[in-house]
Amino acid sequence: RLTWWRIALLAVASLAAPGVLAVQAARGEPVEAPVIVGGSVIIFLLVLVRLAGFMRRHERAVVREKILREAGAMLVGALNREDINAATLEASMELMKDRPGPRRAYIAMGLGEDLVVAAAAGDAGGGIEGTRIDLSDLPDNLYASLIAGQYVKVQGTDATVLGRILDGDPGHESILVCPLAGGEGPDGAIVVASGSQFSAELEEAFQTLSSQVSLALDSVALAEDLHRRRSEAHLGSLVQNATDIIAVLEENGVVRYVSPAIERVMGHVPEEVIGRSIFEFLHPGDVGRLKSVFAEGLETPGFVPQIEFRCRRADGSWRYLEASANNCMQDPDVRGFVLNCRDTTERRALERQLAHQAFHDPLTGLPNRALFMNRVEHALTRALRQGSTVAVLVTDLDNFKVVNDSLGHEAGDELLVAVAAKIIDCLRPEDTVARFGGDEFTVLLEDVSGVGDAIQVAGRIAQALQAPLYVKGQEVVVTTSIGIALNRSADEEPGDLLRNANLAMYRAKAKGKDDFEVFEPAMTARARERLELENDLRRAIEREELRVYYQPVVLPEGGRVLGFEALVR
């Protein structure tokens, strides 16, 4: 800098040669050329040295200005704090590029009255993110200046103390702490350390950089605040209009918040629920299970169980709710146990309806073939384990087609419903009756003592169906043919038992209907022979396996031929 004493020194140097000449002229002494030349050279050298210093300072000033300008552009375009930290550290290291000795730069964010290192660069500057700088460990004058947000230059012993706090290295001759204003919470600081003294120009450059960083932090903070407000407004709108119930619970299960959806789903307004324990609204059979899940969620952060329970509506009815629970006790914005509940009552009813339709006859409501065969399979398994007997009855209405043809199919359906009710009345509660289709019904009798029990049931069914039924105002009397089959070995499958009962039923029809028949193994042989005969006959002509024989009819008196019989063999 241009100071008065420097101007005086330059003036004295400039007037040295003329002064010598003036003194010599006054004394009448001859002028000494070397003195003039020497003085001129000295003046010229002084001017050159001074100009060189000015040029070097100007070049450094231009470089600093360029670095700050580029840093400012990067900070203006920064989208988040990480971008700001990166741009700040890059500019800081560029500003100290020509400094001798170790060079380090830190970005620290405020935490109360302390600073926490957020990012670092330079010699051994990495890996110390998260280091806490306790400002109270610094001398009182430095501590007061930093708390007041003032620029601080730390040198000597104080620099050694601060260097140890930063990264354990006492080899810093000078440390600059440039406070940052703006952003959320306490202010931060740019901390730069060097093994040599900082020039006044460099100190001023860092102060300028800290101002630029502060403005960038303000901008990012405003953008974050705007984004947060929009997100909160968006989230609030979603919560207000969500169909799911969102509840925040305290550790003891007391409801601290519940979304407005509870009024639509459960009939309660939020004010009626907030401040009360959620367990007051649960079905007694579900309280213990939910308490267990609640306790496990509190002990295991990150545990997100799925649970279904019954909850009482305002009108006293029960609704099924499916909930996902999330422990957010450590989240400073929530600090609670979050339940996201969905009403599944209608879904459960639909599932039950679909399951019923999948395994029941839509006309009579009786089990269908799939459910009946499943129950027969389980019955055979139990019978094998317990040594008991299982019986299957197959009943088929006689001449049912006449009813359909004469009175119509609606009358036939009405008759089937009446028949199903009469069969049910003839059975025990543990027995199963199913409709296989058309006019065929099957009955499963478990734990029977023998064929006699099955015959008694068949007799009751046949007798019950002999009573007149009224369909479409018309009296109808129906009879039935019943086949009975009992399990005989451990290898029998449900299909075997059903097949045997069917064979017995067809045997009863062949004997004249309105009767029952018990399966015998010979029926299987006869049925197989009949099937084989029918198949053989169907293929006999194309295989030329049939022959026609003519047998004469002869009168005994006289042996005269009256005619003949044609026989196929």
Write out key terms for the chains shown.
elongated; five-stranded antiparallel β-sheet; 569 residues; alpha+beta; single chain; six-stranded antiparallel β-sheet; 16 helices
Write up this protein.
By secondary structure, the chain is α+β, with helices and mostly antiparallel strands. Helices cover about 50% and strands about 20% of the residues. The strands form five sheets. A six-stranded antiparallel β-sheet has the order 3-2-1-6-5-4, sandwiched between helices. A five-stranded antiparallel β-sheet has the order 8-7-11-10-9, with helices on both faces. Strands 13-14-12-17-18 form a five-stranded mixed β-sheet, with helices on both faces. Helix 2 runs antiparallel to helix 3 (about 80-95). The longest helix is centred in the first third of the chain and has 44 residues, at about 35-75. The protein is elongated, with a radius of gyration of 53 Å. The chain starts with a helix and ends with a strand. The relative contact order is 0.05.
Average of the residue pLDDT scores: 80
User: How far from one another are the termini?
Assistant: 140 Å
The tally of beta strands, per DSSP, is 20
Query: Gyration radius, to the nearest Å?
Result: 53 Å
Strand content: 15-25%
Fold topology:
Elements: H1 4-27, H2 33-76, H3 81-95, E1 103-111, E2 114-122, E3 132-133, H4 140-147, E4 152-155, H5 156-167, E5 174-180, E6 188-194, H6 200-241, E7 245-249, E8 255-258, H7 261-266, H8 270-273, H9 284-299, E9 306-312, E10 318-328, E11 336-343, H10 345-359, H11 369-386, E12 389-397, H12 400-407, H13 409-425, E13 432-437, E14 440-448, H14 451-466, E15 469-471, E16 474-476, E17 480-486, H15 494-510, E18 516-518, H16 521-540, E19 548-554, E20 561-568
Parallel strand pairs: 17-18
Antiparallel strand pairs: 1-2, 1-6, 2-3, 4-5, 5-6, 7-8, 7-11, 9-10, 10-11, 12-14, 12-17, 13-14, 15-16, 19-20
Helix pairs in contact: 1-2, 2-3, 2-6, 3-6, 12-13
